[in-house]
Amino acid sequence: MLGLRSIQRTTVSPFFRQSTRQALQRRWASSDSGLTGTADNAFNRERQAVKEHAAATSDLWRKLSIYVVIPCICIASVNAWGLWTEHWEHKSHEKLEDRTEYPFMNIRTKNFFWGDGDKTLFWNPNVNIHKGDEE
Description:
Helix content is 57%, strand content 0%. By secondary structure, the protein is mainly α. The chain is elongated. It starts with a helix and ends in a 43-residue tail after the last helix. The mean pLDDT is 79.
């Protein structure tokens, strides 16, 4: 109990918090080159150059993603929406009865187990045509 109480007192003291903070700040602080003495060799200089290049390149790609890609996606979305509405505007004037049903369309070797057994699961009567409906 006495040991736990003494540990709690030392960790709560402002001196302990300040010294811990300074030690962490020194450890995580970055300097310009950070290479002095024996650490200043060709390997460490090349490694530092690679880190700087990686930082610059990642910054470039971040800016490209934000300022180029996102506006291009928005413009492409507006264009696709316009083409979509134009297409369905055109399709609304077309009559399904005027289409030709070819022999390879709607081939059924056995009935589907839902509905009337003749229409697929994704059947859309506004788009799909089946002359068997009229008979």
